[in-house]
Amino acid sequence: MSFLDIEGHDRTDLEATLDLADEFIEVLRRPIPRVPALQGKTIAHIFYEASTRTRLSFERAAKALSADVMNFAPSGSSVSKGESLKDTVLTLRAMGPDLMVVRHGAAGAPHRVAAWTGLPVINAGDGAHQHPTQALADSLTIRTRFGKLDGLRVGIIGDIRHSRVARSNVAAFTALGAEVVLVAPRTLLPVSSAEWPVTMSESLDEIIEDLDVVYLLRIQVERGGACVFPSLTEYVSRFGLTSRRFSAMNPEAVVMHPGPMNRGIEIADSIADDERALVLDQVSNGVAVRMAVLFRLLGGDRNG
Amino acid sequence: MPQVMDASDIRRALHRVAHEITEQTEGAEGVVLVGIHTRGVPLANRLRDAIGSFEETWVPVGTLDIGLYRDDLADRPVTNLAKTSLPVDINDRTVVLVDDVLYTGRTVRAALDALTDFGRPAAVRLAVLVDRGHRQLPIRPDYVGKNLPTSAGERVSVHLEDTDAEEGVWIYSDGGDR
Amino acid sequence: MADYLLAGGSVLTRDGLVEANVQVGNGTIEAIGADARSGEVIDCAGLIIGPGLVDLHAHLREPGQEWKEDIGSASRAAVAGGFTAILAMPNTAPPTDAGHLARYISDRGTEVGLCEIVPTGCITKSMEGQRLAHLDELSDAGVTVFTDDGASVADAGLLRRAMEYVAERGGLISQHAEDPGLADGGHMHEGTVSSWLGMRALPSEAETTIVARDLALAEMTGCRYHVAHVSAAATVGLIAAAKQNGLPVTAEVAPHHLFFTEEAVRTMNPVYKMYPPLRSEADAEAMRAALESGVIDAVATDHAPHAAHEKDVPFEEAPRGVIGLETAFAAVRTSTRLDPAAIFDRMSVRPARIAGLSRHGRIPATGVAANLAVVDMDEQWTPTKFESKSANSPFAGVRLTGRPKYTFFEGALVWRDQEAGQ
Asked: What is the ipTM of this complex?
């Protein structure tokens, strides 16, 4: 059993993981926020893309369950000597981990790793494909705030076309009963919406007051200006969450962002620190949902 | 399937245990009752009510799910967890762990480990409705509702109104209980 | 005594399928019918005898990448697939951009001796798209098909000059139509599946725009123009219109584009990665229809071997291409509604004519060179092992209908299916 994408999991299953994560939030608040549930288990973190925050979140989750962690990053390793992904993960498997957490720039890489190693694998982000534990963290954040996702309108704003967060969040939010609107300039919307259970809009102003959750994606500043939109200024003027747009929001509505934020671009500086910006909740819920996923994959694994 | 306790047996046993706790803790001063999920929780609530009925003090009740502390996770998967909540700081208090059946002692071992993560109680006591013997760890109850000699092949089943819609304790001879 | 007597089968003749024996000797068909009576008997009961298949498009990897394939293993794969002549694409290392390199390839083919290996030549030097290759030398070495396959000639001015040059020599420009800007480093077809997988993708227009441009250049220069591995429905429309206007245009389609769609890529298994990519069901149906109607002239395998370790990587990091020589006939038989005569037309007669091969693609008749494929139209089989050095086939494990049983090259029996009657 692996956790590779959201689509492979139905609502009951996703909710069971969120329920478990709720209990782990309690664990994380204990004086000694650690339980021995995965004592003796070893988790290999294999991060082909630099991602300090996701790796730390997984590490925190593993340690709170008393698992041991091995970290692998390609720089300065055998990868720079040309070792293939397959050889690398088979080598790591020979060191005896019980589970692998894989982040890779190519879509489907964690799926390949699961097939090659036969170990449970958690997808920590593959290409622009999926980032399922982020989607769980975000779902838990919304559920904690509103009680449920049913009937909520979530707007996902930004570079959806190149975003694994958008893909897994669309799958998770809709599976849990929310309605999703994608908002972006045409160049950042998915090329084909045929398989996306969403509606799309090219105007944030038209829909902002109808949203319960304004979910902002990070704009790749280094990529953005060059080809996908004419200039950052233009992007901000149409799709940035400015103070004016923030005040047009429903007073109950919240703002989310998977981080790291570009203050002043997708989100105005002052809003990032507002009580209705749940960015830090997303981060702490990230640890809890990762604990839940780890525990579900290893806590009941007879062959572990 | 012989029934060994009925509703009034249970009520009387708990009443006696509540008295014993009160006596040994000088009026239940500084006591926290902590029920172990699942049936330890309603039993802890009943003990609180019983103590309250003659001491006019309401001792705090916490709940503990020991799923994350079990030593047999690989054999018996845990798929969900119940609420763990300790309403007060347990440091320097007397914690009375409450469970329905004491058998191998492994659940109590796990509960002791869990408590350690919440603080350092002055003392930890153990109250059980039924002690059926066959300990695998050096653990001894302080308060026992009923001692029930059993063989390892038998199964002891406690049902409570709160969780099972009927009340009583039964012994079955089909297979072991843990 | 003659060499072989192909007994009990049906022969594809100018008058259609005829039940007749075929006598092969001295490298030719010596007799068909009542006069055919001598030679080692080859039991062809239930089989069809037709002209050996001709592949306009195969990557043999020699010289330079012999760990993937070499001319020996490619020749074995070819004859196992019923082919008696295959065109070797020039993207070797070094690329075939000069006469001596083309001669090396045909000489190696002769040395192996299982089938004819026909070199093609680069359009631009080193396939870099900057200046013309040694088209004169290549032409003198017998090259008639010029291509930078693997990449488009993106510079229209350069392509115009190549066309003018090649037209003068009576040659053919074969274009791998893929606009680099629209292709955008994509890994798969741009459509519903790529959108959800989040992979960089090539729209159909990456192919169609290049073909539209090139057709204008073909009209301008009068050069024969061939569209390699057509994959998009819109491209078919352009080719059909150009043919109606009398342009000297031909086209080929690869078996996998007849058989698979982008749906296969959902598995993210690199065995489904090739360029052009597997497209939509509508595109695949357009390919089948165009092959059946003849708008697309030929099936060409785009046989592209890669070693197992090269393909066993994440999809986006995998090299492009799949092998196809050994499964082409079955893939066409299984996926299209072509009758036996039409299959031999699209897989032998027309490709031989496009490449200007006089000894291949000729309907069996007395005195014709004995380059023959003997096929079972109805055998059901599942490819698992390959004569090719590589096994990167999307057809591995897929149930197929139709199988080459014997292959004759210049009168010699060069392939006998293990399970064929002795």
From this structure: 0.91
